[in-house]
Write a structure and sequence with these properties.
The protein is mainly alpha-helical. It has three helices and no strands. The chain has one domain.
Length: 71
């Protein structure tokens, strides 16, 4: 009985730790994107290129990545 209780608690702690790592990674991605977009040269380039065009150009690559990852 005691052994079963410890394994369940370890599973919960493991899931909590994985969630913390995932949220930390998302926070780093958002922070990195903010740093990149705060650069004046990048802002000028995106202004010339257009953000909508950039999103349309990136969608096929993202779709291909998700298909590869699902394999």
């Amino acid at each position: 009985m005691e052994l079963a209780r410890h394994s369940t608690n370890d599973d919960v702690l493991s899931a909590d730790k994985e969630t913390l790592y995932m949220l930390g990674g998302v926070a780093l991605v958002v922070f990195g994107t903010g740093l990149i977009l705060s650069n004046p040269a990048v802002r000028r380039y995106l202004g010339q290129f257009g953000l909508g065009s950039l999103a349309q150009a990136a969608l096929p690559d993202v779709d291909r990545y998700l298909k590869l990852r699902a394999m």
